[in-house]
Amino acid sequence: MAHATPADRPDHWSTGSHQDDGHAAPTLIGSVQRALRLLEAAALHEGGAPAKQLAREAGVALPTAYHLLRTLTHERYLRRVDGVYVLGPAVGRLDEAHAQQSRRHLIDDVLRHWHERLGAPVYFALYRDGEVDLVATADTPGNPAVAEWADFRETAHAHAIGQCLLSQLDEEGRRDHLSRHPVRPLTPYSVPDSQRLLRRLAAAERMQPVVEYQQYALGVACAAVPITVGSAAAVLAVSLPAAQAERLRVTTQLLHRDVGSIMRRLRFSISI
Questions:
Q1: Tell me, what DSSP letter sits at residue 231?
Q2: Crossing angle (nearest 10°) for helices 160-167 and 194-203
Q3: What is the pLDDT of residue 5?
Q4: What is the DSSP string of 12-73?
Q5: pLDDT for 12
Q6: Cβ-contact 28, 17 below 8 angstroms
Q7: Which backbone phi and psi does 193 adopt, to 5 degrees?
Q8: How far apart are CA 57 and CA 37, in angstroms?
Q9: CA-based end-to-end distance of the chain
Q10: Of 167, 171, 213, the residue nearest 189 (C-alpha)
Q11: How far is the CA of 43 from the CAs of 143, 167, 197, in angstroms?
């Protein structure tokens, strides 16, 4: 049977080849490459460009370009308006995903910095859509994060992260949260009921760190420093063995002292 030459091969066949060192090059899909070139060409024309121009700029044969443009339009990566092609909404979703990923990397960098500096697990959390959202954690096997044995969202009353976030809400917001997630003691040290917690939150000085000892888990102490950007309530928190109470106070003071610089780095990540 005759072997197909490169010119005879269907568009979906591999275009892989062997490198000079004898190792196989990555398998590349020609049709995907050509579609990407067409997208890149379209991105250069804010007002759009016709198929012939895009094909020429992308170095794609016109019949192939028509097929690919039709597919890209169907998948909403392009839109055809008055005979020209412009970028579609699917490209915007990719851009948004990239921006979100960049924000997440920034948060991770901040947490890693403080984890290394403090030698303790560090947490970043938000109060979003009426719930506690633990966004990211930095820890190591030698300094592990607290095991989430009871859902953090449902037990905000029992850990420093949740108490610190609730402290940034008004009384109506706190009562609304507790109506959906009633107080239930998790350890002998936990706040016993909603009224006791509400009184404690009302008496606390606004935007000050919150420290709790063994309220969420026996043998663990946590501290959370409030960070507020616009209307978003956020916290940076640390946890340590309860026996290291003195060290917890020192780490909390360091976080609170540098909260301004932390806010400046995180302010563009709050919407993640």
A1: T
A2: 60
A3: 37
A4: TSB---B-TTSPBPPP-BHHHHHHHHHHHHHHT-TT-B-HHHHHHHHT--HHHHHHHHHHHH
A5: 39
A6: no
A7: -155, 170
A8: 8
A9: 58
A10: 213
A11: 47, 47, 55
- The predicted-structure confidence for 76-123, as pLDDT tens digits, reads as follows 889 899 999 998 888 777 766 555 665 667 788 888 888 998 999 999
Contact 165, 141 (CB under 8 A): no
**In angstroms, rounded to a whole number, what is the distance separating the alpha carbons of residues 128 and 123?**
16
Exposure string of 90-129, with b = 16+ CB inside 10 Å and e = fewer, is ebeeeeeeeeeeebeeebbebbeebbeebebbbbbbbbbe
> Which pair of tokens denotes residue 227?
């960070």
Q: Which is nearest to 122 in space by CA: 239, 242, 259, 5?
A: 239
Residue 55, CA distances (Å) to 82, 87, 108, 214 in order = 18, 15, 42, 66
The pLDDT of residue 245: 82
Give the mean pLDDT of 226-250: 86
Phi, psi angle pair for 83, to nearest 5°: 85, 0
160 pLDDT more than 90: yes
The distance of Cα 14 from the centroid of its chain, to the nearest Å, equals 35
